[in-house]
């Protein structure tokens, strides 16, 4: 049987939202694990990751309830929210993939200067001090700071990984953006299908 009926659309939509639920719980778990093991000390980063996870979980919950109950209002709002998320995520993913070396360096420097806790995490984990240069009178959490030899700047070290990280983030973002547009299409089709168990005179 071709997958185009009411039951198939419902099952596909439920499976998609279960995937979103797993991803949201994974994001929350990673943030909790990172701060629990001391890998992330920046409260701002943790809050952003957890907020994204909770937002994705709520979207998946609305979609799951709407799919199970064939609730027209919930499915409509789910479709609109998913479409808006797709537009934002697709744009950000394309921007990550399109950044050149100079733009990456500028973006990294802005991020470096924006938060001290994340800067300390980078210096400690990558064993470097300063972005492009380091003032010896300043303090640095890197282990090399205690040695006689000078610490290397962080910009070249971060730059080696920045391109790969941006490509990875952009690729993951594109993948999930296409699942979101798939969710919009499935929701639109599912909303306009008749539940075979429902009253024939019920509102479609």
UniProtKB/TrEMBL annotation:
<protein>
    <submittedName>
        <fullName>Tetraspanin 13</fullName>
    </submittedName>
</protein>
<dbReference type="InterPro" id="IPR018499">
    <property type="entry name" value="Tetraspanin/Peripherin"/>
</dbReference>
<keyword id="KW-0812">Transmembrane</keyword>
<keyword id="KW-1133">Transmembrane helix</keyword>
<dbReference type="Pfam" id="PF00335">
    <property type="entry name" value="Tetraspanin"/>
</dbReference>
<dbReference type="InterPro" id="IPR000301">
    <property type="entry name" value="Tetraspanin_animals"/>
</dbReference>
<dbReference type="GO" id="GO:0005886">
    <property type="term" value="C:plasma membrane"/>
</dbReference>
<comment type="similarity">
    <text>Belongs to the tetraspanin (TM4SF) family.</text>
</comment>
<feature type="transmembrane region" description="Helical">
    <location>
        <begin position="75"/>
        <end position="100"/>
    </location>
</feature>
<dbReference type="GO" id="GO:0005246">
    <property type="term" value="F:calcium channel regulator activity"/>
</dbReference>
<feature type="transmembrane region" description="Helical">
    <location>
        <begin position="46"/>
        <end position="68"/>
    </location>
</feature>
<dbReference type="GO" id="GO:1903169">
    <property type="term" value="P:regulation of calcium ion transmembrane transport"/>
</dbReference>
<keyword id="KW-0472">Membrane</keyword>
<feature type="transmembrane region" description="Helical">
    <location>
        <begin position="12"/>
        <end position="40"/>
    </location>
</feature>
<feature type="transmembrane region" description="Helical">
    <location>
        <begin position="168"/>
        <end position="188"/>
    </location>
</feature>
């Amino acid at each position: 049987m071709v997958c185009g009926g009411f039951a198939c659309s419902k099952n596909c939509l439920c499976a998609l939202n279960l995937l979103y639920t797993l991803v949201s719980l994974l994001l929350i778990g990673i943030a909790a694990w990172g701060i629990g093991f001391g890998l992330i000390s920046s409260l701002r980063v943790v809050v952003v990751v957890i907020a994204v996870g909770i937002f994705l979980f709520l979207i998946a919950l609305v979609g799951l309830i709407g799919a199970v109950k064939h609730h027209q209002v919930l499915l409509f709002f789910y479709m609109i929210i998913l479409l808006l998320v797709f537009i934002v995520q697709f744009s950000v993913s394309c921007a990550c993939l399109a950044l050149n070396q100079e733009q990456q360096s500028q973006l990294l420097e802005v991020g470096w200067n924006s938060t001290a806790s994340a800067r300390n995490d980078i210096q400690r984990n990558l064993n470097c001090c300063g972005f492009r240069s380091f003032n010896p009178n300043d303090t640095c959490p890197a282990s090399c700071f205690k040695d006689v030899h000078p610490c290397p700047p962080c910009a070249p070290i971060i730059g080696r990984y920045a391109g790969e990280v941006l490509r990875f983030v952009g690729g993951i973002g594109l993948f999930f953006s296409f699942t979101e547009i798939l969710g919009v299409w499935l929701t639109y089709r599912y909303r306009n299908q008749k539940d075979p168990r429902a009253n024939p005179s019920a509102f479609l």
